Amino acid sequence: MSYRRERCGNCGVELQFPLDAKSVRCAACHAITTVRTRDPVKQAANWIKGFVNHVAYNAINSLSSSSSSPLWASEPYTYQSLRPPTYPQVHGKKRALLCGVSYRQRWNELKGTINDVNCMKYLLCDRFGFSPNSILMLTEDERDPYRIPTKQNMRTAMRWLVQDCQPGDSLVFHYSGHGSQQRDSSGDEIDGYDETLCPLDYETVGMIVDDEINETIVRPLPEGVKLHAIVDACHSGTVLDLPFLCRVNRYGYYQWENHNPPSGAYKGTSGGEAVSFSGCDDHQKSSDTSALSEGTNTGTMTYCFIQALLTGSGTTYGSLLNAMRSAIRGAHSGLIGGNGPLTCLLKRVLWEGMKQEPQLTSSKQFDIYRTPFCL
């Protein structure tokens, strides 16, 4: 009898089962894993939806068995009362920081950010060989006060990400949450605005500005270390303040724009390499939706990033960027069916109003269609 191999959707153990099996129970953790479909697009959607449902099920059980409330719902606490954080001890050459900010019970609450970071963690472990012990997650679901995505905790976590990194290390920074802009006061922005990330407490202590992000996780990178940032937020095109922005036209031709600051400030690394995929251009907004994954809320950019990798569309940086953009355009135009003149006009108006084009920036220029993508 012929067999197939599949990884357990819960613990990641490799399973073996007959070709005609539709599901298999893991002998290690007893979770049931559904066999992936042959349609790569459906495979990606089912992968994300199934994993999100699994995380939600575990979270509900965890909350129901505990008498305490999540930290985000408790009384405010002061930083002075906290002891130094105990973050994961890094194993191997790979580490990742995943931040998902939901802003619960506020007017600007987001529904898909925690789903985003949970799926990103599983992707890193399942497809790119990251150890769960080398991944630090900051979300409002965490009970450890040092893992709530406040401004201070995000600053500390970013320093953890790059601390003591060595040649050959692969670092990942993923953020899903709100992003914004503010007037540039240092003269190093071409458009006159700094891009920002909005931590959980940004309304009281302020946002994290791109200058600080660059200084914290870009500048310290030594020779032989590579950082990938995946930032799913509004106004995030140049949120790492990297020197080069890749412009790609509708036909796939690209050109690197020099975004070195007019002030002459150095925004590169200390010999390493930094590459960032962002949800949209600096003047655009990113969306949080349930339209892509059949009712499961996700960030549009994060979903399309994962989908492109699962379907094999993201083998190079260029193919990954184009696959993400095509998926987002298709999703937006698919909100209105039909091909009549009025429908086409509505689609065009809708696209212009919701336009979201993922961007690629880098600390150095390279051939985006010949350079393989790997974390």
List the defining traits of the structure above.
alpha/beta; Rossmann fold; 3-stranded antiparallel sheet; 8 helices; 28% helix
The N- and C-terminal alpha carbons lie at a distance of: 36 Å
Q: Give me the strand/helix succession.
A: EEEEHEHEHEEEHEHEEEEEEHHHE
Class inferred from helices and paired strands: alpha/beta
Q: Mean pLDDT, rounded to whole units?
A: 81
CATH topology category name of the largest domain = Rossmann fold
Q: Residue share in helices?
A: 25-40%
Radius of gyration: 21 Å
- Secondary structure tally, helices: 8
Percent strand equals 15-25%
CATH architecture of the largest domain: 3-Layer(aba) Sandwich
| Tally of individual domains | 2
Strand order of the largest sheet: 6-5-7-11-14-17-12-13
Could you describe the largest sheet, including whether it forms a barrel? 8 strands, mixed
Folded structure, characterized:
It is a single chain. 28% of the residues lie in helices and 21% in strands. It has 375 residues and is an alpha/beta fold. It folds into two domains: 1-35; 71-362, Rossmann fold (3-Layer(aba) Sandwich), CATH 3.40.50. Strand 1 and strand 2 (14-18) form a beta hairpin. The model is unreliable at 59-84 and 342-353 (pLDDT under 50).
